[in-house]
Amino acid sequence: MDQKLKKELFSAFEAPKPVKKDAFLRTHRRREMGNLRWLLTQVGYIRWYIWLGSVGVFLLMLILGRAAEPRDFWTVTSLTPLLALLAVSEGSRSRRHGMDELELACRMPVGAAVLARMTALGLFDLVLLGAAAPVLGSWAGRRTLEAGVYLLTPYLLTAALDMELSRRFRGTVGLMYSAAAAGAVYALGIWIPGDRLYRAEALPLWWGALVLTLAAVVFETYKTVERREILQWS
Amino acid sequence: MKLDIDTQYDRIYRYCYYRLRSREEAEDVTQETFLRYFASDTYQDTGQTLQYLYTIARNLCIDENQRQPSQPLPEDLPSKEEEPIAALALRGELEKLSPEDRELVLLRYVNEVPVRALCKLYGVSRFALYRRLQGILKRLKQGLEG
Amino acid sequence: MELIVRGLTKRYQNRPVVNNLSFRLYPGINGLLGANGAGKTTLMQMLCGVLRPTAGSVSLDGVDVASEDYRAALGYLPQNFGYYPEFTGMDFLLYLASLKGLSKGHAKRRAAELLEMVGLADMAKKRIKTYSGGMKQRLGIAQALLNDPRLLIVDEPTAGLDPKERVRFRKLLAQLGQDTIVLLSTHIVSDVEHIAGRMLMMSSGRFIMDEPWDKTRTDLEHLFLEEFGGMEE
Q1: Cβ-based contacts of A110 with chain C (< 8 Å)
Q2: Domains in chain B: how many in total?
Q3: Do C36 and C49 reside in the same domain of the chain?
Q4: What pLDDT, in 10s, does the model give residues C202-217?
Q5: pTM of the shown model
């Protein structure tokens, strides 16, 4: 089927231009993209360096873990707030850059787009942490599950705090507060002595903290996603 | 459901015009086709959607034609005001094809309906469809060169 | 086609910024005049469903403002809008087109069409950072038209534009189809005086004027100054 023949066929079957098309489509246009495809398109808008940065944090954790003194070993978990900061910052981008109002007036629920992006990053982070846990665990002589708890809890805590802060404060201020919160969680991990924080007796407390922070993240995600109006400036 | 409604509207309209020879009727049937499609809420992949659209359009065209005493499938091509000489040759060749083959050319090569959807629409196997299309192309090319 | 607004109210700390407004809008250009702080933006935000009213309802041909179908028919150009810093004009339009549920093919076609229409075709691949104020506004109106809206809400589109850009913008708006409901708010009389078929004037959350407007009239400025006394730019 060469192009010339195709063009001629086109011409042979040509019809006069329809006149009612625009009016009809205007009134009756439906969703043109399947839901899954649309969600994936939204995920595609995550900036590439966020993915790269997340991998970087992961590698840094492993490097520091290798290089750290045994008693300082678990300070590597204090890097996980940075992961959370990266993920949540993608979710609050539109407000930061003044696209909030435009997006909310669009047909598709913006919350779904934000959820898609945060879920994609969240899952990615989970994979990274899931890969780090057994490695770090074995270096410290602890079980993988235990290592996982130490890694996940500060991550979830930071994520919850950052989501709350970026809803309360506009623009770059929100981002700065979120970064400060991540820094605070990091500092907490450094400041409390490692042998107290990570001793075997403290593990049940960690599990409790994990459950609480998980609940907080679920709550914050819900609030972030279900928002259908512009936030009043504070 | 990655359908580009804009493009498909044009294609369904072209198909309807080919069958009905009236811009107004073709537009009405096209819109009716899409209204019925929008009213059905089922999730379909692109192939099924196109088969569905063309089935509705075809049936509506048949209904429309039954009000007039003409053939179910047109014997010729729509007439045009000016036609370059080269196009006349093609037209002649197309009119030599059977009405079913001519419609197939419209759907496959002009409207770019995927083979899968066509198979479902006509109820034939891929193999049979390919054979038929190859046969049509061969005849067209021979007719144009010979 | 009509937009029906009933008892629309917005209160902040018990102060009504929009006070129990009821009105209907029909296809054509409807001008909304008022001084800054009159409540115009708050009203428009509620008509776009981006701000929840304290009381009242908004519906377009029976479709409530909170529904997806309403937003599917809506185009909005806010008073201030931003953009992701890495975006070019085309990126911006394609991104919003995806949020408006347009397929990729349709979005590309529509974006190209609109960029041409607003005279930004040659700036499409350049970053919005490099755009002038007038260009940014034109991009704004382009995004509002992506989904071929039946209801177009434009909030103070000419603020900060030079007179030449203002004329250009006015011409663009006047071109819009006869079957679109356009609500255009401004505090600059000349923006709407000769293109609007209906004039509304707002003051302290209430309408002090709501009547059909004859485009050949030239006394709008006088009426406006009478009410707002020397607030015109």
Answers
A1: 99
A2: 1
A3: yes
A4: 988 999 889 999 888 8
A5: 0.77
